[in-house]
Design goal:
Shape: elongated
Distance between the termini: 13 Å
Largest sheet: none
Structural class: mainly alpha
Number of helices: 5
Mean pLDDT: 85
Number of domains: 1
Low-confidence stretches: none
Strand content: under 5%
């Protein structure tokens, strides 16, 4: 018998879906910003034209209210899901990344000022978010397999079996 997909609340699926889009965009645009303006440890092989600081900041502006809603949801309705260490770690790192990003000045990098504590904290969050997302995905797959993973991205909720 096929494993039945778990039912996920609509609000969780919507917030999670938005995070699935915005977090990788923020991460990738952050890699371009780092490569173009700092590059101490990473230089992309191609010069990527564009105003990437503003692009990254716009993604952060979109991510900020969604992250706040996600935290509120996670600490209230979804608090039992935080018992999974990977879920809690991903949420903590998301707060660190968004919070440190909000504290940064966009002209720091444009002016070559790469030694601010908050900037280093944001870089740490950038590295940790990759690890936390990988751990989160691994945890989802190990707990519920493809059925659980797909239940988070399905537009329609799973149907209840009539047995």
């Amino acid at each position: 018998m096929a494993q039945q997909a778990p039912r996920q609340p609509l609000l969780l699926r919507l917030l999670h879906g938005a995070m699935v889009v915005l977090v990788p965009l923020a991460w990738l645009s952050g890699a371009v910003v780092f490569s173009n303006y700092d590059g101490r440890w990473l230089r992309l092989p191609l010069a990527v034209p564009g105003n990437w600081i503003d692009i990254h900041g716009t993604i952060g502006v979109l991510l900020w209210p969604l992250a706040a809603l996600f935290v509120i949801y996670a600490l209230s309705v979804g608090r039992f899901r935080l018992r999974q260490s990977a879920n809690a770690a991903a949420l903590i790192v998301l707060v660190l990344a968004v919070g440190s990003g909000k504290l940064m000045q966009e002209d720091w990098l444009r002016n070559g000022n790469v030694d601010h504590f908050i900037y280093h904290l944001h870089l740490l969050a950038w590295l940790l978010i990759a690890a936390a997302v990988a751990w989160h995905i691994q945890g989802v797959i190990s707990r519920g397999g493809v059925a659980l993973a797909s239940s988070m991205v399905r537009l329609k909720p799973a149907k209840r079996s009539s047995s």
